[in-house]
Design a protein that fits this description.
The protein is built from eight helices and eight strands. The chain is an alpha/beta fold and 181 residues long. The strands form two sheets. A six-stranded parallel sheet has the order 3-2-4-1-5-8. It has a two-stranded antiparallel ribbon with strand order 6-7. It is globular, with a radius of gyration of 16 Å.
């Protein structure tokens, strides 16, 4: 909410299978529940920029019979917990590139979760230095990974052979991690 108010992008490195769907589920609750935040989020788009995460989400949607009782209850009330009006999935490189040229505030969920490969590296390159933007970690960051370096407070990192500054808007939501750390 604060990032969007500044006109920035919230970038969330996420694992494509499991963690991304957990995030969609939780964001669905924010976007579709009448609470104090809903009005603030009405104009903020959420993009899942990972072909693997998109495919995994489609598999989850097709297999709702294995969801827990709470999730099945949402579905019987007509709410698909893995979808909401502001959620968009990208598949193509062109769509992914566009996300970094679009000036509108947004949330980008992209793989890989530890930032060592995938489209997330492009989103970091375009947002890590920007004081308007935020990076939110939602999973374990192993030693030696780019994600761990950023989370540990690196002032500068190298992406695609170029050094870049790291802004101060780095957050860690430890409740999403499945690790005992």
């Amino acid at each position: 909410r604060d990032t969007a108010a500044k006109g920035g992008t919230t970038v969330i490195p996420s694992f494509a299978v499991g963690r991304t769907q957990e995030l969609i589920y939780e964001l669905n609750r924010v976007y579709e529940t009448d609470n104090e935040y809903r009005r603030d989020f009405d104009n903020i788009m959420v993009y899942v920029d990972s072909p693997m995460a998109t495919t995994a989400t489609e598999v989850f949607k097709r297999n709702a019979q294995v969801f827990d009782e709470e999730t099945k209850e949402f579905i019987t009330k007509g709410d698909n917990p893995l979808d909401f009006k502001n959620l968009r999935f990208t598949r193509t490189s062109e769509e992914s590139i566009w996300l970094n040229t679009d000036p509108e505030p947004k949330v980008i969920i992209s793989a890989s979760g530890m930032c060592d490969a995938g489209r997330i590296r492009h989103h970091l390159k375009h947002n890590l230095w920007n004081r308007k933007s935020s990076i939110v970690f939602v999973g374990y960051q192993a030693e030696g990974t780019l994600g761990k370096m950023i989370l540990d407070g690196a002032e500068e990192v190298t992406l695609f052979g170029e050094k870049g500054k790291v802004n101060d808007n780095i957050y860690n939501l430890e409740g999403f991690s499945g690790h005992a750390d």
